[in-house]
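[step 3/7] fold_predict: job queued, chain A
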Amino acid sequence: MDLIVQGLALTDREVNEVMRLSGAVSLQPIDDKAVRLDAAAQDRMPAVRAYCDGAQLDCTCVDAPMSLDRFGLFAMDMDSTLITIECIDEIADMAGVKPEVAAITAAAMRGEIDFAESLTQRVALLAGLPEGMLARVYEERLRLSPGAEETLARLKAHGIRTLLVSGGFTFFTERLKHRLGLDFTAANTLEVRAGRLTGRVLGAILDAQGKAQALERVRTALNLARGQVIAVGDGANDLKMMAVAGVSVAYHAKPRVREQALFAINHVGLDGVVNLFS
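[step 4/7] structure written:
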């Protein structure tokens, strides 16, 4: 098998040590933070993983080189995946209820509470907040994950369409769609009356099943096979979406998601995902 080794500041010493531990016969640079090691020995992987974990390196086993050219759709979660924050937690911070909302968010991400119920509880705590606070969160706190723009540029260069699917809110997904040139979005809509949040979501809540259905709708519309889809997420609410994709990638994810995904990126930025297909 081949190994994709990635680090925030990958050194020659680290690469050489992984080559020695893995028995790989050669290497191919991907970029200044990633290399492909060819023909590693499978029985040496426990030692390789132990070293990489200690060095905070991502080391991913791939059976054979996978080219981005074989894919047609890249679906991703928004909060803590495309962006670094959980939007609802930051909105709650401005409302003075962040500890209560963040606790529910964390439980939902771990899969300990039904997502739809958790969202209903969290949004109810935001009732009465001025709508303008959403714009403040977007402008003052929302940041793209490291490597996000490089990832999107590479996807577009290969003609891969992009879907941002979120249990969060359209206020943010639509702005990111326009800003980043994304092709499709799906999310929940906060109800606003007289310039203030009502504490409710309009229509059916887009939960884990809704995310999977959104991906399937776009995949069908694009006439793509399941194997032509990559899905990336970090929380339990992403698992059903990831399960209907040909390739699933856990990005800085909760343990349950890492266990069920085909690949996991734990240390490097979002560009580490597309490096797996180099």
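[step 5/7] annotate
The longest helix spans residues 208-221.
The CA atoms of residues 55 and 278 lie 23 Å apart.
exit 0
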